[in-house]
Amino acid sequence: MFMGLVGLSFFNFTQRSQEMDSAALGKRLFMDSILSADYTLSCASCHRPEFAFADTSAVSVGVAGRKGNRNTPSSMNMSARESFFWDGRALTLEEQALKPIENPVEMNLKIEHAIERLQRHSEYNQLFIDIYGESPNASLLARALADFQRTLETGSPYDRFMQGDSSAISAAAQRGLTLFNEKGKCIECHFAADLTGDEFRNIGLYDNKIYQDSGRAAISKNPEDLGKFKTPSLRNVAITAPYMHDGSFRTLREVIDYYDQPDKFVSHAINRDTLLNKPLQLTESEKQDLETFLRSLTAKQFN
Ligand code: HEC
Ligand code: HEC
Questions:
Q1: Which one of 103, 123, 177, 275 is separated from 22 by 20 to 30 angstroms, measured CA to CA?
Q2: Percent of the chain with pLDDT strictly greater than 90
Q3: Terminal CA-to-CA distance of the chain, rounded, Å?
């Protein structure tokens, strides 16, 4: 009996490792709290799959309840991004992947300790050898996490509409799309396939008093970058509330009200993009249409 059980688990194990590729290993690591100092948090604790790999708190909460200073963005639709983090301080998904592990307010674990844990874990150690021909090391850990995240690309009714299915989105959403492209000027910054141009822009959430995060400028050291943040993709935006780098807007409607009249929210914005100089003067029904359009960017799996 005892021998039989051992035989069975050995069989399962070898079968599993044959099936696993780098992305599948990355998925398992993404979900595993082995990468946090006190074994309480995985990447998925903040990038929660059911919220399009974002979370629901304004700013992130790391080990021992430590608060970060920024909102957790979705880690879906990362394949085409040119930089990562709100301030673009990582240039590849691989470079990005190791930072949350070491960040004291996130997982707070030195990479060398993470690697020791994986090497001592006989199943992980074997999986790395099977997949890459080597025991766990930092660059392979980064590669696995990045390869998994590159599989998280999503479509939407909007995409089907753009491909010619004119009934894929409602008439209201179609009016919203026109507002997005014209009166709302949204497309000036949220353009290309993922509705972001991957540029750093300042929509006015920096006044050095209430809004103190200087964003890109802290990385580039260029005063012209004060208050600029990476324009986020709008895919699945309906389920990634709250919004903005600091999570200060709770609903899509608040975001739309902001773009309509930014001065009502932040009276002394510094270095705000000139595109936001004039109130948009959206009517109530235009605001609703714009929101309906943003909701058409949600992938089927989240409905
Ligand atoms: C404690 C919460 C938390 C954990 C745990 C966490 N993240 Fe994040 N993640 C964030 C926050 C907050 C940001 C934005 C930080 C910033 O811009 O300074 C972020 C940013 C990212 C981004 C960049 C997204 C973009 O649009 O540029 C990716 C990719 C990502 N995380 C992947 C991961 C991976 C992989 C792990 C696990 C190794 C992980 N995260 C663990 C909170 C977390
Ligand atoms: C000048 C460039 C620019 C314009 C114009 C613009 N955006 Fe943005 N958008 C951004 C940037 C940059 C952010 C992130 C800002 C921050 O966190 O401080 C953002 C954030 C957002 C978010 C929050 C996304 C998230 O995941 O938190 C939504 C929703 C959004 N924009 C929708 C719109 C809509 C709708 C319009 C048109 C009415 C619009 N944007 C016009 C650059 C722009």
A1: 103
A2: 93
A3: 47
Question: Atom 31 (ligand 1): residue with closest C-alpha?
Answer: 75
Mean local confidence (pLDDT), 161-181: 98
CA of 171 relative to ligand 1 center, distance in Å: 36
45 lines ligand 1 (CB under 6 A): yes
Residue 169 C-beta-side C-alpha neighbours within 13 Å: 27
Whether 231 is in the pocket of ligand 2, judged by its Cβ within 6 Å, is yes
User: Average pLDDT in the 97-103 region?
Assistant: 98
